[in-house]
Write a structure and sequence with these properties.
The chain is an alpha/beta fold and 584 residues long. The chain has 22 helices and 23 strands. A hairpin with a 4-residue loop joins strand 1 and strand 2. The radius of gyration is 25 Å and the shape is globular.
């Protein structure tokens, strides 16, 4: 086995991978590892990755082979790769596609024309490997689901169990390649516009068209369900619209907020031949079911009583949808998994900047929405100029003696909040506002009282979950036009808000160690700037605190994407630059 002690990487028997952060090949190796491994820790000198069955299955779904993974590892390892790791990489990746779910018995018709297929009462679980079918048929988790055996290679199951069996088989280590096809929804005459609202020529960018093509896969049974992972600012909404035009059927879009609903509707009408009458909003104020209907996760998961039914689930059956789009799919609430398990005969597109879920339900996204079909590295998009270059800085603000004493005497969760609400952060915010006085700035935080204090101190408008949608949209529009240079926003602005002129983000508090949230907040400022300037993302934390420790974990996903956080000790900066004059 080839290896070189001068290389930057060590692969260990527990499937962890250690990578030297200061090696000359670090960037190249980091980018390659991110395709099939997850970043766990990123201290200063050594980054730790983890190879998991799910990370390997997602890599296999994009077309990567075990041989390519092993060839990459062998090229950069210091020492021999443990035999069990080589064996299990081949074994796990080989399991993707080993079991296939089909609409017709394989001996009758393997090449299925999915545009014409209407799944009947039963589906067929098939594998060329007879012991695999025997193991599945006899497993305690799955044996009660199947109707009977068709032959030694094929099990028969009710078509209504399509989602459930996929979930259970992933759980026991057999990711299903779903080739059972889709029910065609009601046809929709939709084409992309040739010009945008400003009269400029409009067409999908090359990578956007590639994303649509990979998802659709020329209408074959291997397409029609899956997740596309692209950076914030890459135009995921436009990709969703491109998929709608490609499929040409009634479409249901689920997104994160009413403001995001309005953004989707605005983009659809602007960038397609559909009229505003053909695009409906299903929200608390309006419940219009149209050929294209846009709603929120909060709306469909609302229920009047804790253990009662979800009255708005009916929207999933309100029309013959040919496509369901899950925007920001990493935020998909658990109840929507429940109904999605019953919608496996519909085409399903997930859009996200990160597949990281803090609840650990990435496997449910994999099985019920579909595997990752495309993952475009942030660094690649930045290099091509499709997203802004971002400079990330962690600003550490000291805590005074009384705050430290208070934090020492309360439970850890409460201490974290006290640290996050450190009143001295106001001084750091004032410094950053002065430094970026002529730029569009978002001040983002978790705690409403803290945000109210900041908004009042600097006399800036504030948007929270309680801000009426109409007022919220007015403030976003004023920010886009430059009438308002600074907005203070709560976590409602984490997702699906297009603010192209925002070039500075100041994060003053966050949801503990949420990697997902860190990525989304940086994403608010990554739209490319007209003059090509960089974006600046500041995370203001209390020095030597639990918040600082959580901040390190929050930065993991962005570190994996190639971003490095500069550290600014605010107390030293104040003393060194005489910054009292900058602080209001």
């Amino acid at each position: 086995m080839v290896y070189n002690p001068a290389n930057p990487m060590i692969v260990q028997g527990d499937f962890s991978v250690l990578l030297e952060a200061y090696h000359a090949d670090f960037e190249k190796v980091r980018s390659g590892l991110a395709v099939f491994a997850d970043l766990e820790k990123s201290p200063e000198h050594i980054h730790t990755y983890r190879i998991t069955p799910l990370s390997l299955w997602n890599a296999a779904a994009t077309g990567l082979t075990p041989a390519e993974v092993l060839e990459f590892l062998l090229q950069y390892v210091k020492f021999p790769i443990p035999n069990n790791v080589c064996r299990d990489i081949e074994g796990y990746m080989g399991r993707y596609g080993l079991v296939k779910l089909m609409a017709n018995p394989p001996m009758i018709d393997i090449a299925i024309d999915t545009r014409a297929v209407v799944p009947g009462e039963f589906l067929y679980l098939y594998s060329e490997d007879i012991p695999t079918i025997m193991a599945i048929a006899g497993h305690k988790e799955t044996k009660g689901i199947f109707h009977h055996k068709l032959d030694e290679n094929t099990l028969i199951l009710p078509s209504g169990k399509r989602g459930i069996v996929k979930q259970l088989l992933v759980k026991i280590g057999y990711p299903v390649e779903d080739l059972a096809g889709y029910i065609d929804g009601e046809q929709l005459d939709i084409m992309l516009s040739q010009y945008d609202e400003a009269g400029n020529e409009f067409a999908l960018r090359d990578y956007q068209q590639q994303a649509v093509d990979v998802f659709y896969d020329s209408g074959r049974e291997t397409g029609g369900s899956g997740v596309l992972v692209l950076p914030c600012g890459a135009g995921k909404t436009v990709i969703g619209i491109g998929a709608m035009a490609q499929i040409g059927m009634n479409t249901l879009v689920l997104t994160t907020s009413t403001s995001a609903v309005h953004q989707w509707m605005r983009e659809i009408v602007e960038k397609t031949t559909l009229t505003s009458e053909e695009v409906g909003e299903y929200s608390g104020g309006q419940k219009n079911i149209c050929p294209v209907t846009v709603t929120t996760y909060q709306m469909v998961t609302y229920r009047p009583h804790k253990n009662g039914p979800f009255p708005h689930f009916e929207i999933f059956n309100a029309r013959a949808w040919g496509l369901i789009i899950y925007d920001e799919v990493h935020t998909l609430p658990a109840p929507v998994f429940q109904v999605t398990a019953e919608l496996q005969a519909r085409r399903r597109l997930g859009l996200t900047a990160t597949l990281v879920r803090e609840d650990g339900r990435e496997a449910d996204v994999f099985t019920l929405i579909g595997p990752k079909k495309l993952d475009v590295p942030w660094s690649e998009m930045e290099r091509e100029g499709w997203i802004a270059t971002a400079i990330c800085t962690e600003v550490r603000v000291p805590m005074d003696f009384s705050l430290r004493m208070e934090c020492a005497q309360v439970p850890e969760r409460m201490a974290y909040r006290f640290e996050a609400e450190n009143a001295d952060k106001i001084k750091a915010i004032g410094y950053l506002l002065h430094k970026h006085a002529d730029e569009g700035i978002l001040i983002i935080g978790q705690y409403i009282k803290q945000l109210e204090a900041i908004a009042e101190h600097f006399d800036f408008p504030l948007i929270t979950g309680k801000t009426p949608t109409e007022k919220r949209d007015q403030l976003y529009d004023a920010f886009r036009s430059g009438d308002i240079p600074v907005l203070v926003v709560s976590k409602v602005a984490n997702f699906a808000i297009d603010l192209p002129d925002a070039s500075v983000g100041i994060q003053v508090s966050g949801a503990f160690g949420s990697r997902q949230e860190e990525a989304q907040r940086l994403g608010r400022i990554l739209r490319p700037k007209k003059d090509g300037r960089s974006a600046y993302f500041y995370s203001v934390v209390s020095k030597d605190s639990r918040e600082q420790e959580f901040a390190h974990h929050r930065q993991l996903f962005l570190t994996e994407q190639g971003y490095q956080y500069q550290i600014l000790d605010f107390e030293e900066t104040m003393l060194g630059e005489g910054l009292e004059r900058c602080v209001k």
